[in-house]
Design a protein that fits this description.
about 200 residues, mainly alpha, 9 helices
């Protein structure tokens, strides 16, 4: 179960850390010291719900068709290879994080923005329900629960660390070189997990 939890954590971390509008908003709120706990909690709980739906529901459906497990695993590996390639490509081009959304003054406004950026993002469903849910089908019972728990733990660590560590992270990640290191690390993790998926089929 330890390996399953670690794989879930690493895969979840790789998918969540990829910077998008949601993470940019959490970072912006952290920099402004506005509703950091509420925003981080909304993002984490949303991820946890979607991961649970994928691991508990979609994963169960996939497990009932062994051939489908192989197909999903192969597609998952292909997705991770492409995802890693995109990360490596980003690492070749310097870029900065724009945090212009961090101006929601009210609690309701901040929570509403976090919900919209999370639940109206199609990549969230691809990453959590389909991707994590499909890959979790390779595990049974406690191991599958451990895989899902690992992914949820990655979400927990990332969103609260991003929100509360924003004052320290923001100056660093305004520098293109920092993004190169982060994108390179994401690419390596994605390719390593893809290799482990294919190895498991052999």
């Amino acid at each position: 179960m330890g390996n399953a939890a670690l794989e879930g954590f690493l895969l979840g971390a790789g998918l969540i850390i990829a910077i998008g509008s949601q993470n940019a908003f959490v970072l912006a709120q952290g920099i402004a010291h506005r509703h950091v706990f509420a925003v981080s909690t909304v993002c984490f709980l949303s991820d946890a719900i979607l991961i649970a739906a994928g691991v508990g529901g979609f994963g169960t459906i996939v497990r009932s068709w062994p051939t489908l497990i192989v197909i999903v695993t192969i597609l998952g590996a292909i997705f991770l290879v492409l995802y890693g390639a995109i990360a490596f490509n980003r690492a070749r081009t310097p870029h900065r994080l724009e945090t212009g959304n961090g101006n929601s003054g009210s609690l309701v406004g901040a929570i509403s923005t976090a919900l919209i950026l999370t639940w109206l993002n199609p990549h969230v469903y691809l990453d959590t329900v389909l991707m994590l849910g499909g890959i979790s089908a390779r595990y049974e019972n406690d191991a599958r629960f451990a895989f899902g728990s690992g992914a949820v733990a990655a979400s927990f660590v990332w969103f609260y660390a991003l929100g509360y560590g924003a004052m320290l992270l923001a100056p660093i990640f305004r520098k293109p070189l920092a993004w190169r290191f982060l994108d390179t690390a994401i690419g390596l993790v994605m390719w390593a997990i893809a290799a482990s998926l294919i190895y498991g089929l052999l």
